Amino acid sequence: MAPPPNRSSPTAAATTQLVTKVTGIVFTALLIDILAFTLILPLFPRLLQFYRDSEHGDQTSLLAWSLSRLTEFQNMIGLDDQQQQQQQQQELGVVHTIKRPPKMDIVLLGGAIGSLFSVLQFIASPIIGKLSDVFGRRRVLLMSMIGNLIACAVWLFADSFELFVLSRIIGGLSEGNVQISIAMISDITTPATRSRGLAMVGIAFAIAFTIGPALGAYFANKDLVAVFPELAQYGLHPFSGSALLAIVLLTVETIYLYVKLPETHSESWRLAIQQQQTVEADERRTNGSSSNDNIFAPPPAAAAASASATTTTTATHANGTISAADRDLDDDSIIRLQHTFLSRLSFIHFAHLFLFSGMEFTLTFLTFHLFDFSHMQQGALLGYIGILSSLIQGGYVRRKANKVGEKRMVLHGMVASAIGLGCIALVSGDAIALVNAAAAAAAGGSTMKEESPSSPLGLFRILLTQLNAQNWSKATRMWVLYAGATGLAVTSATVVNCLTSLASLVCDMGSDGLSKSGNGSGAQEQQHHHQPIGKGLALGRFRSWGQLGRAAGPIAACSLYWRVGPLVCYGIGSLGVVGLVILSTKILPEVRKLPIRTRAAVSKKTQ
């Protein structure tokens, strides 16, 4: 698609076909970007071991300092104190001994570098989002691509650990493709088609995380030092092949974006989508659709008749719903609602990824400890989760999110996560021994008396006996493990995607004048106690809290895992998700049931 000369989007007569083309451009570029990002994931252990071997004996290096801090962390969580660890497990009634995986310090160092990247994204995401509101999505995205290319160029010649960390810092501060892609899709889709468009972001993630690591591992075997030995003096190293592939991918992506991508943050696109939204609303009214599907639609004549009435006081309930009489609000009330809803969504995003990413990080530890999984078996399990997640996103989320509702789909995904983590907890230890030990501890260490089989506690023990993984065959435990992985795949396909859709829909609440007020004069902005939020900034803040959860979750989960074992760790994770489901039911907004308009917008429609 050849963009107009001014790189802006089309006129108000934009068609669904054109929106589909732009969404396809964004999806293709994002897929290439995430492929380049995932190339390094399987290389972390060997790459860090390479730096450890090459800098062996240098106690003044950054690597030596980092390993020293990680040793202190391992001592803190009792990872190196095997006697204390076994005693704790006996007190808890856990039969399995936790085998310390080989090169644990390297594994933890890789996790720490991953957390560093997420922390930098927490800092940079709101800034990048704000810049995209001011200078345009396309321009800021291209600037972000330049930063990514610089980061990969540093990695290409990073023969020292310091240079490698520098490349990750540059990448963490400049990566903006994901959030800008979300903002662009939000720019060119109506609320009714928002979830369908944003599901493409999740599909790109699922595909890239399935294919990218395999590509990275393959090209890591192509030693460029052997091909270009003269470049070794400039820092070329055995893993530069994957870095070179990342540079090639990012270069192709940058050229593709420069040639194909139009600017979506423009007045012409806003008017075109507004017109499309009006057409969709007319079609729904003609077809007799329910009001729940009438998302931010122009209000009917009855609403217009109320425009002359006095503005009513906002009555927002805890679950994010508003009484029908209060749906026509003034600008400041709508902005206040936006701030409230976005804060709730950001917190749930943080809490979900804190729990989910932490459990996900320790999953490979568990399969190594309990099943002695090889690298191929680990890859098969993770590949199963990635492929199933992409199929669910493409076949279910894109098609049904608009009908089912984003909030309900988020809750479904969280319930799947609780069940999945519960299944993994079941296969990881002796549940009945743990319960007996806990009950004995609660009784002050006295001996537990035998309960009647007909009593509630007796029935509970019988149930635990049936669910006790110690009595299962290895095949049964494997089936339960994959059942848990299925739950995690459902979660991966639904929760973050639909939370992002909700955040994007909240940005669209209010009138057209409100959405433009952020670019108005200072006098106009002072009329609002709460300043209007640009879509790029709002989605950047939302994403930043998720990245903070990704940074903190693995650290907390790893500490818990090595302290109390996988049974307790995953059991707490499952219960934590249950609590999050209950909280989300109470505080998440049902944006599709809030066709909120300002009175100014209602009056404008009647003129």
Produce the secondary structure layout:
Layout: H1 16-38, H2 44-54, H3 62-76, H4 82-92, H5 104-135, H6 137-156, H7 161-174, H8 177-188, H9 194-220, H10 224-227, H11 240-260, H12 267-286, H13 301-305, E1 328-329, H14 331-371, H15 375-404, H16 406-426, H17 431-442, H18 456-467, H19 474-507, H20 512-516, H21 522-525, H22 535-564, H23 566-587, E2 597-598, H24 599-606
Parallel strand pairs: 1-2
Subcellular location: Membrane
InterPro entries: MFS (IPR011701), MFS_dom (IPR020846), MFS_trans_sf (IPR036259), Sugar_transporter_CS (IPR005829)
GO molecular function: transmembrane transporter activity
Structural summary, described in words:
71% of the residues lie in helices and 1% in strands. A two-stranded parallel sheet has the order 1-2. It is globular, with a radius of gyration of 27 Å. The two termini are 37 Å apart. It is found in: Membrane. InterPro entries: MFS (IPR011701), MFS_dom (IPR020846), MFS_trans_sf (IPR036259), Sugar_transporter_CS (IPR005829). Its main location: membrane. This is Major facilitator superfamily (MFS) profile domain-containing protein.
What's the quick description here?
GO terms for molecular function: transmembrane transporter activity. It is found in: Membrane. With 607 residues, the chain is mostly helical.
